[in-house]
Each structure stands twice: as structure tokens, then as C-alpha cells.
Amino acid sequence: MYPDRKTIRRRRAIFGALVLTSLALLTVWFGEPAGGALHTLQRGAQEVFSPIQTGASRALKPFRDTIAWTGATLSAKGENDRLRDELGQLRQELAATQTARRDVEQLQGFVDIAREDRFPQGTAPVTARVIARSPTVWWSSVQINKGSGDGIAVDQPVITGDGLAGKVTSVTGGTATITLIADERSSVSAQVMPAGADGIVRPEVGNPNDMLLDFVEKGSRIKTGQTVVTSGFSSSRGLESLFPRGVPVGRVKEIDRSELDIYQTVHIEPFAELKRMDFVQVLTAPRPGPGARAEVPSQ
Amino acid sequence: MTLSRSAALRVGLIVLVAVLVQVSVVAQVPIFGGRANLIPVAVAALALLGGSLTGAAAGFAAGLALDLSMGMSLGGSSLVLTFVGYSIGRFAELRDVSHGLLPIAVAAAGTLGYDMAYGAVTFMLDIEATISVLVLRDMLVGVLLNALLALPLFALVRRIVRPLVPEGRFEGRRRGRPREAGPIGLRGLGLGGG
Predict the structure, then answer these.
(1) Are residues A184 and B126, on separate chains, in Cβ contact within 8 Å?
(2) CATH, residue A211
(3) Is residue A253 part of a domain?
(4) Test the B interface: residue of A137, A169, A172, A179 with most B CBs within 10 Å
(5) DSSP characters for A201-240?
(6) Nearest CB to B135: which of A15, A140, A206?
């Protein structure tokens, strides 16, 4: 049976309406301020979804652990062949043990990082578990199981046990959305230690293991292996200062010194494992005073 | 498939569960450096079973739920998934979709289309960074994982919406009006017809 003209017109009309609605949503969403109707609707929806997501995340954790373990086992297949028989009896126990150990390691990292000399003092970190991740390959955001009820607010910095992870971009009562430093919109002002060279950390989208420290003056003496920390401000379009000074960001792994460019570009490997983090800490305390901040380098 | 109330309910349920399971569980399980994505596979399955309208509606709903729940750019995912669902639905309306392995190809194509189109939309909207080849690797792994998941997921979706799918939907439809048999029972030998 073949559709008549009316059916075809109806089909096209509905398709067009859906596309136009999507485009309208995009246009309004980008055009309105953070307190606009669509953003409010989105926060409301997150309020509704968050208990379901948290419940699903908890209920399906054993399944997730088993799958994660299976993936890890498959990727190390060659190494594990010899031990497969023995492992067969211990699989479930091993999955639980590995997961618990990984959790402990990540939580221990929070203790260690807070003890570092450069780490900003006076913050009140709130530890949270990652309950959802953006499914795109761009690794732009994750959701955590703590929200405004725990003192979390928009624009607060977020770290893992290893270093800077991102910042809070949306909060509901019980959850918060973290935009990662690997997001294409992210830019964080940073310094190479101990030289003190300033620059802006930008992502190389799709590769969270390689980030760029841009706008570093050519005269600055930078060596591979040096540590990069936040310099006390975030320059998203150069307007805001969000991150406290001294949060570890990454380690210098390569330096591009093109003779034609005014600045040198430094490739850094972030400390935080953005693809594998299960816990994060939100630094909820008020930002340090102006004395602890550096100035934005002129560009 | 006409989107009756019962059909819309089932489609909505499938879409909602797919989004929830995806963001709460599947997206947190890296396999070979990539992640499966149930959402385009669910939309593809619904489109293949229900046609272009169902596909577009399911894609729009899935995208909207994803954008709302994850705080992503509202409308971006729904735009892309509407196109994915509609395209696969049109394909199902115009071609023979009876082959048993077709879901694998459709799921792979749907996932690849979603990843590429979403990337394109993201770039058009707001991006100021260089792109790594790692993106392509992750896309490829994601497509392969989705292709592996396609058969069981399609079977599950089919089981849920089976009462709403017209009988014979997957039993050898082909493009073009079938030619009638001639007087002695062989095609092409009919007199004055065909």
C-alpha cells in the first residue's frame, strides 16, 4: 500500500515541525541568560531526572562493575590467558575488590592533593560521586550526586584527587552538572611552575590527555616535566576569575616554538583522568581574596 | 505505524529507558577506550519498525530527554536524532528491511550519523579548539560496540512494539508495486497487465 499525497504532506509537515522546534530551542537556549525559561526548565527536568538517575546508577552498579571489569579483562587478554582458569573462580570477587580499591585510591588522592603546599587553603571541599556522563565523544560534562543542598553553586571549581577537572555549570537540589576542562568552551588561566609563565589552558577536543597552554610568552623558559597550576583566575572570554590559585592542572610534555608566532604553545598532560574519574570534589568555600590572585596576561 | 496513544506510550517508554540507562550506566563503562550509545540504536530500531514519522518523533523525544537530563545545549541532540530517526524510517519505508542482519548495519550507520552530525552541530554553534584524531577512534569504537548491541536491542524493541507493528512488516517488502502473476502462474506472462 502506498501513501497518498495527504499522508506524504503530513509526514513532511511533522518532520519539519520537529526540526524547526529543535532549531528554535537551540536559538532561544543560546540567546537567553542562565536564568532564562529554558535553562530553568532544564534545571527542573534535572531535578526530576536526578533521583531516577541516582537510583538507576546505584541499582545497576554491579552490572556496570561487571561490564567495566570485562572490558578491562578483554583489553589485557594476552596477559590474562595464562591465569584464566584461576580467575574464573575469582571474577566476581575481583570485580568488587578492584572497584573498591579504585574508589579508595581516588578518595586518597583528595587527601593528598589538599596537603600540597600550593593547594588553595580555606576551601571546603565537598566530595561527590559521578552518576552520569555526557554520552558524546566530546567528554563535555558529567553529573554528580551533590547539589545546592550540599553547598554547591554554579562556577565553583571541581577537582579530582589528581588535579583540576572543571567547574560547576548547573545545580539542582541534589545534583550538579560539571563542565570538564576538556570541553571546547573551557579556558583556564594557568602558570608553569616554577618559572611562573602565564598562559591559558585550552582543550584539544577529543583528546583529554593532551591540552594546550596557549599565549605563553616566547621568552619564558619552560621545560618538559614542569608542573602547571591554576594562576588564580579563569578567563572564559577573559572576563571572569573562577579558579583559586594553585590547583594542579597538568605536566608539560611538549613545547611548540614556532618562529613566526608571538607566543609559544605548550602541550600539557592533565593530572586528572577525565575519562575515568568516579569521584570529584567541589571546592565550595568562597574564593580567596584578591591577594592570592594573579593578573590576566594581556593578549 | 500510526502513533496511537498506546504506541506513543511504548515509544516514549523505550526512549526514556534508553536515555536513563545510557547516561547512568552505559556511558560510565569504557570498553576499548570507547563507549556504546544506546540512544541512536533505540531510535534506529523504532524507526526501522515504525517508519519515518515514528523515527522522527522518537529521535526528537530522545534528544530532548538527553539534553534536559544532562544540561547539554537544548535542541542540539533532538535536532540530530530527529534526522537520524527520519532517515532510517524513510529507508525502512522504501527498501526491503527483512534481512536478519540489517539491524547491525542500520545501528552502525545511525550511530555514525549521530556522532558526526552532533559534532558538526557542536562546531557550528561554539567551538574554539583543535580536534584530536582520538575523536575518530572513539567514534569508530562506539560504532562497533553499537553494531554488536544492535541485534539484541532491536529484538527487545521489536518485542515491546510488536502488537503495534502491522503484520508482515518484516516479511519481504520491496520497492515498487509487485507484479502480478500471469494466467499460468508466472510473473510477466499476464495479458495486458503487469
Answers:
(1) yes
(2) 2.40.10.350
(3) yes
(4) A137
(5) EEEEET-TT-EEEEEEETT----TT-EEEE-S---STT--
(6) A206
Find chain A residues with C-beta within 8 A of B128's C-beta: 184-185, 202
Overall domain count for chain A: 1
* pLDDT tens over chain A, length 299 residues: 566 788 888 888 999 999 999 999 988 888 888 788 888 888 888 888 888 878 877 777 787 777 767 766 666 666 666 666 676 766 667 667 777 777 777 777 777 766 666 566 667 788 898 888 887 766 578 899 888 888 898 888 898 888 888 989 888 888 899 988 888 778 888 888 877 788 888 888 767 778 888 888 877 788 888 888 888 764 555 555 578 878 888 899 888 877 667 788 889 998 888 877 888 889 886 544 444 443 333 33
Domain ranges of chain B: 5-164
Sign of CA dihedral B89, B90, B91, B97: positive
Q: Spell out which residues of chain B touch residue A137, defining contact as CB-CB under 8 Å.
A: 34, 115, 119, 135, 138-139, 142
Do B134 and A206 make contact, defined as CB atoms within 8 angstroms? yes
C-alpha cell at A225: 616535566
Mutate to test the interface with B, among A7, A10, A14, A15 (most CBs of B within 10 A): A15
**The listed CATH number (1.10.260, 1.10.1760, 2.50.20, 1.20.120) that belongs to domain B5-164:** 1.10.1760
C-alpha A203/C-alpha A211 separation (Å) is: 5
Nearest residue to A267 via CA among B135, B132, B128: B132
Distance from CA of A282 to the nearest CA of B (A): 18
8 Å CB contact of B30 and A53: no
Interface size, chain A vs chain B, as Cβ–Cβ contacts under 8 Å: 183
Nearest CA in chain A to B174: A1
Residues of A in contact with B69 (CB under 8 A): 45-46, 49, 53, 132
Provide the residue range defining the domain that includes A259.
Answer: 188-271
How many other C-beta atoms are found inside a 10 Å radius of the C-beta of residue B189? Answer: 11
Distance CA B58, CA B161 (A): 13
Closest CA to B110 of B133, B90, B132: B90
Beta strands in B90-144 (DSSP E): 130-131
ipTM above 0.90, yes or no: no
Residue of B1, B69, B135 to mutate, interface with A, max A Cβ within 10 Å: B69
Inside any domain, residue A68: no
